[in-house]
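Posting here for the record, re: manganese (II) ion.
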Amino acid sequence: MTTLSPEILDALEKQAIELPSWAFGNSGTRFKVFATPGTPRDPFEKIADAAQVHKHTGLAPTVALHIPWDVVDDYAALRRHAEDLGVALGTVNSNTFQDDDYKFGALTHEDDRIRRKAIDHHLACIDIMDQTGSRDLKIWLAEGSNYPGQNDMRARQDRLHDSLSTIYARLGENQRLVLEYKFFEPSFYHTDVPDWGTSYVQVAALGEKAKVCLDTGHHAPGTNIEFIVMQLLRLGKLGSFDFNSRFYADDDLIVGAADPFQLFRILVEVVRGGGLNNPDVAFMLDQCHNIEKKIPGQIRSVLNVQEMTARALLLDREALAQAQTANDVLAANAIFMDAFQVDVRPALAEWRVSRGLPADPMAEYAASGYQEQIEADRVGGVQAGWGA
Ligand code: LRH
Ligand code: MN
Ligand code: MN
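Prediction output follows.
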């Protein structure tokens, strides 16, 4: 069995992965949203489910909210509820994609009234962050156009800068804005924030408290995502990850499921660039569980990130640097692959037990009775928001 050094275990001990509240709601594709028994009926129940993931893995101490999907009357009560269950509220995600007013844009809209409405939504999100104790406001924009000539792309960039500046000015001293990019969908011809370069340009113009969010599912097939990770870390502008995996589009599948090797390559660059256990770089999941059970889906996800982090930490960087310097192509590649091929699961299981956690969190959750309980107790769970 591979053993993990005290340094590696120390790095793993500090790892924290934020869960998205919407992973616990029902979601689907534009063809069908399948209802899953036991689905939470309100944000309080979503937090309770997220707390189960942390309880069994020790890996997921915070939960991200999405406004308006997680609107409640009393955010202080939601915060206390989370803390009572051993977790905290994390990133607040804004939403300017489910209102008819935003058909042709929100923060980029030509009409000042609509643009102001979208800005005000973000200011309201920051008000919520003040109550929940959240640090990050995450902005993903569903804005762009479908046909060449439909819009003045440059004017939209200018309006985006103006809108983001107003939002940025409202941030508290310890709050941040992270701007997420996505190369397509729901707009298909042009997207206002399609790539890391555009996100970088926009956040760089705002200031230190604005960073880029990299969603691993938001790139064209074949994109070298680890190169982007390297570059953003080098520039000090990688604010957060939305982890998930994709085969074809924005699939939001379990991280590390579609392409474990890609996850390894990304985490190698995270470690190389000082992004691991760095408070400036938030690890989050952005996933939806359409056909599988949601809590074990999230448990599987955080374990996948942990396992791949352990493998990235096992990379013999000294030997790799020597091989690279000597231009020994095959040796360098072999050293890299050696780390990827290690099965760290038995060592992690043993280590979990030493920390009072279950050796097998998936099995322990299945045996806990929680799933049966929520399936019996909850009737009429809500959708994650997509079909709402
Ligand atoms: C849309 C999206 C995006 C956001 C999430 C809330 O693509 O998946 O990644 O982070 O919705
Ligand atoms: Mn995302
Ligand atoms: Mn997405």
